[in-house]
Write a structure and sequence with these properties.
Number of strands: 5
Order of helices and strands: EHEHEHHEHEHHHHHHHHHH
Helix content: 40-55%
Distance between the termini: 89 Å
CATH architecture of the largest domain: Up-down Bundle
Structural class: alpha/beta
Strand content: 5-15%
CATH topology of the largest domain: Zinc Finger, Delta Prime, domain 3
Number of helices: 15
Number of domains: 3
CATH class of the largest domain: Mainly Alpha
Largest sheet: 5 strands, parallel
Length: 329
């Protein structure tokens, strides 16, 4: 084959049909940044070939290397170049990657062959050769502060307004999971209402478990003493068969313990930092007697739900009323 092109500066320099690498290795546990580069490549080659005839996708674990290489070695049809993607290349073993080594030594200059995945194993010749040819591009997550800043920038770029705690919540909810899909859901959620701020509750419903979001909202209403909001949300929880009074009691007990820690000027264990800022004013608003009374009533409701024949939801509703009606009323 003819002499290969010099690799383009994938992360910073413009990529054009006159300046692209014949091979890209995109790996790392930051799929948001990694997929951004992949989308740049897709847009570039799709723009030159609206038919899509010169764009093929494969899975390194499911497709034999000779099938992928046949596609990579093919000449483009009615377009200047081809784009061939191979996902999960990091999951393939050394034997599965072996056939690619000779191709990496002399790739087809009219094909852009893209391997991508999460991990990089530099013990394998495949990754060593990618690095030697300057075709290996790694995208690693930063620390918590860096991840929050990245999410904040993504939301702002999408034109979304959001509550201050949303970036922290996304980091805590998703961990090392793919953030790009979560951001797509949030953009879709707010597409028709860009003026209102994206709330924590909306994030929980859209990204986390919807039921978890409902419980979160309910508990928030209870502890801020929003009677109407609490009982409206309670009706929704009763319709959701995945929720039980005992499970909600356990979550409320955890919140009471959090308030006790904060009121004692201690850091509550296992609580995301963004929630500490939310709970601190609540801890100051409650007296020690109120916390004791709420916990005593919650303990009694838990015992009755587990041991009596009464409907657990009725027991829980009675507890809820005790939260809003003073005992000496």
């Amino acid at each position: 084959m003819s002499k290969t092109k010099e690799p383009a500066g994938a992360k910073s320099q413009p990529i054009t049909l006159e300046n692209y690498s014949p091979v890209y290795g995109l790996f790392g546990d930051d799929p948001l940044a990694r997929d951004r580069l992949l989308l740049r490549l897709r847009d570039l080659f799709a723009g030159a070939d609206p038919s899509g005839l010169n764009h093929e996708k494969f899975d390194a674990q499911e497709t034999a290397a000779d099938v992928v290489l046949s596609a990579a070695q093919s000449l483009p049809m009615f377009a200047p170049a081809r784009l061939v993607e191979v996902r999960n290349a990091d999951q393939a073993n050394a034997a599965q990657l072996e056939p690619y080594l000779s191709y990496l030594g002399d790739p087809n200059p009219t094909t852009c062959l893209v391997f991508y995945g999460e991990g990089v194993d530099k013990k394998k010749k495949f990754f060593k050769l990618l690095e030697e040819r300057r075709w290996l591009h790694t995208f690693m997550r930063g620390n918590r502060t860096q991840m929050m800043a990245q999410i904040r920038a993504e939301l702002e770029q999408a034109g979304l307004r959001f509550e201050a705690d949303v970036p922290a919540l996304l980091v805590d909810l998703l961990g090392t999971q793919d953030l790009s899909l979560a951001l797509d859901k949030l953009k879709l959620l707010k597409a028709a209402d860009l003026k209102s701020k994206l709330t924590i509750e909306e994030v929980l419903v859209a990204v986390g478990d919807g039921a978890e979001g409902a419980v979160f909202t309910f508990i928030d209403h209870v502890f801020t003493k929003n009677v109407q909001g609490a009982f409206e949300q309670l009706m929704r929880l009763k319709e959701d068969r995945s929720q039980s009074p005992i499970g909600i009691i356990a979550m409320m007990d955890r919140q009471i313990r959090t308030l006790v820690y904060l009121k004692s000027n201690e850091t509550p264990p296992g609580i995301p930092p963004f929630l500490i800022g939310k709970f601190a004013p609540l801890a100051r608003a409650f007296t020690w007697k109120q916390l004791f009374d709420w916990h005593s009533a919650l303990l009694d409701a838990d015992r009755r739900c587990k041991s009596s024949r009464a409907d657990p939801w009725l027991v829980f509703e009675a507890y809820l009323l005790s939260c809003f009606v003073p005992r000496n009323a």
